[in-house]
Amino acid sequence: MAMRRKKDNFTPGEARSGGTFFNMLPTALVMCLLMLVLIAVAKNVTYTSQDPSLELLSVGKQETVHPVKAAACLLIYEDDEMGTVGLEEMSAILSQMKVPFDTLECGDVEENSLGSYGYLVLSVTHYQYLGDLLGSIKTWVKAGGNLMILYPPELSGSFCSLFDILGIRDCGSSYTTVESLHFSKDFMLGGASRDFVVTDAYDSSMSVYLEDDCEVFAQSSGEYPVPIIWRRNAELGTVVVDNLGFLEKGYRGIHCAAYSLLDSACVYPVINASAFYIDDFPSPVPNGYAEYIERDYHLSIKDFYTSVWWTDIYNLAEKYGIKYTGMVIEEYSDQVSGTFKRNTDTERYQYFGNMLLDAGGEIGFHGFNHMPLVLENFDYMGLFDSYRQWPSYQAMLNSVKELKGFCSSLYPDRTFQVYVPPSNIISGDGIGMLASEFPDIKAIASVYLPGELAYYQEYQVEDNGIISTPRVIAGYILDDYTRLVALSELNFHLVSSHFQHPDDVLDEDRGAEMGWANMFSNLSDYVDWLYSSVPSIRSMTGSEIAAAVQRYDYVDMVQTRTENSIHLELANFYDEAWFMLRINDGRGIASVAGGELTQLDGTLYLIRATSDEVDIQLS
Ligand SMILES: [Zn+2]
Predict the structure, then answer these.
(1) Rounded Cα distance, 211 and 72, in Å
(2) What is the DSSP letter of 72?
(3) How far is the CA of 511 from the centre of ligand 1 (A)?
(4) Rounded-to-integer distance, Cα 611 and Cα 614, Å
(5) What CATH code is assigned to 73-270?
(6) Cα(454) to centroid(ligand 1), Å
């Protein structure tokens, strides 16, 4: 605990920033002494080994315990570019919301295709291909069906024939470009506190003029807003139109939120976790000075990391209860064969690592060095000239064994359960090696969004037993797109997963020129937005979020609705599972049995199931 108040301990910068030799001397001496004391103390810190807030389950991927469910939802798609992307994205969204659904290609629809489905999602560009089904859709909605238009289609007579149920009074013949989104209150967590800029805006949305009985949840910002997501009750059924026109992984949460507006209520499982990873930390720190740190702080890189960067992010964590997961690099050589020599320069590992652990954080593996775990059969496609492939499986294995020995000697009572691939690159060989040779490694945290050569993941348990816990956003710039993706994931999985690297401060592409004060202010602003949007989100280490992903991925449910209640029958339930609940018909919640309830927003609730039967009584 003595290490907590580091900010006051020493300020090397002051010694370099002026003054006479004589008045500098005492400061410098005191500083040196303090640094020695710090190191001595850090070496002897016996951090308290903290119990995780959530234990990893020892059971693997569940195969057969899922309840037999009749598909409630039909997803009709067109076999064109937009239609198939819509199919892909909406399939991912529905399956992760645990909504049982069937898919049907446009060419195969018949007048009676809607059968007993309660929900219909149209991922269709040319509505004329739906033929006679169009008439059936109108009748079906009025009789209680729930229809979602997934993206703005081509404006045809066939589509216009649906205007009376969609609530469209008038529609311009050209599409409009939406530069920024304004969300209404009670639609998406964290959505209403600011407007969200749309990156790469194009003429994506229909310029519609709606009937008065439409309820608009998202619209373009500005004086003449274009409705982007709206709902309309059409007799006994509901209709949601998603006029956004961006179908990609980073927007899934918006489409999930739109889908959840259908019907009188919607329940879906969530992870409920906020994780912060620190890349290459602890790791050897470069000697010397860096342009922007020198400019703003007159400090060496080493001193800056210790006295400014770490102090700031440490205090940020303390303020919000963040638990950092630090990803260790033993050294920065490009050695890929031979004997991997132990790094003996361990003072900073002791100092930072112990502080991080003492504050409730976790240490994970990043690499012996920063060479991704790929063999010579891996194609870097000319993108990473400085990276070398490992010549053999054994060499790759030896390097990680050395890292494990190194970490075990530094942090003897810890188990290292989380791995982050250097540069987000790892091959099937590398993953297979970790899964089979290092049973302690339970989770791989690579990236969520696809990117060049990146190993990108979903939140799930893989067949080899490894839990995928992707990081969603990164860095200290936190640009418009990052903000939108963060909003999306907060609402889709109730997840925030951020990744920062101390050397972001050295790299112009990652914002160095704006200076650390501005970079840190961006991060603080994000953290503040996150924890004020969902004060009840759980701050977790890499292992804890992995444990949360296990429960989220395993759980399945059958819902039974009555006039006054929602009953959830859970399968693959262990000790807890989390659900987001949206009530659409203006009712409140009288009681919950088998779980605990937290109101997140006017119509959004978080449920922690504590039993495999959850009964929600509506008021
Ligand atoms: Zn790294």
Answers:
(1) 29
(2) -
(3) 17
(4) 7
(5) 3.40.50.880
(6) 13
CA-CA distance, 138 to 101, in Å (whole number)?
20
Token pair listed for 600: 């997140």
Structure confidence at residue 17 (pLDDT): 32
Residue carrying structure tokens 């956004």: 244
Helix ranges restricted to H, 199-334 = 252-259, 291-297, 301-304, 310-320
- Dist. CA 278 → ligand 1 center (Å): 9
The predicted-structure confidence for 264-304, as pLDDT tens digits, reads as follows 999 999 999 999 999 999 999 999 999 999 999 999 999 99
Strand locations in 361-409 (E): 362-367
The token pair that represents 604 in the structure block: 């959004």
The H-assigned helical ranges of 225-375 are 252-259, 291-297, 301-304, 310-320, 347-358
Tell me if residue 115 falls in helix, strand or coil: coil
- For 321-335, how does the pLDDT look when each residue is reduced to its tens digit (9 = 90+)? 999 999 999 999 999
- pLDDT for the residue 301: 96
Cβ neighbours for 38, distance < 8 A, ≥ 6 positions apart: 3, 6, 9, 10, 351
CB atoms within 5 A of ion ligand 1 belong to 279-280, 422
Q: CA-CA distance, 477 to 239, in Å (whole number)? A: 38
Categorize the per-residue pLDDT at 18 as very low, low, confident or very high, splitting at 50, 70 and 90: very low
Peptide bond into 282 cis (omega under 30): yes
Domain extent listing, the chain: 73-270, 273-548
Helix (H, G, I), strand (E, B), or coil: what is residue 355?
helix
**What distance in angstroms lies between residue 418's CA and the mean position of ligand 1's atoms?**
14
Predicted TM-score (pTM) above 0.90: yes
- Longest CA–CA span in the chain (Å) reads 92
Residue 52 confidence (pLDDT): 86
- The pair of three-digit structure tokens given for residue 590, joined into one six-digit string: 């009288």
Question: 36 C-alpha vs ligand 1 centroid, how far in Å?
Answer: 28
**CA 326 from centroid of its chain's CA atoms:** 18
**In whole angstroms, what is the distance from residue 440 CA to residue 324 CA?**
19
Under CATH, which number does the domain 273-548 receive? 3.20.20.370
Per-residue pLDDT, averaged over 149-154, amounts to 98
Question: Are 516 and 477 contacting, i.e. CB atoms less than 8 angstroms apart?
Answer: no
* Percent of all residues in the chain with a pLDDT value above 70, rounded to a whole number: 91
Q: How far apart are CA 386 and CA 615, in angstroms?
A: 57
CA of 359 to the centre of ligand 1 (A): 22
How far does the centroid of ligand 1 lie from the alpha carbon of residue 421, in Å? 8
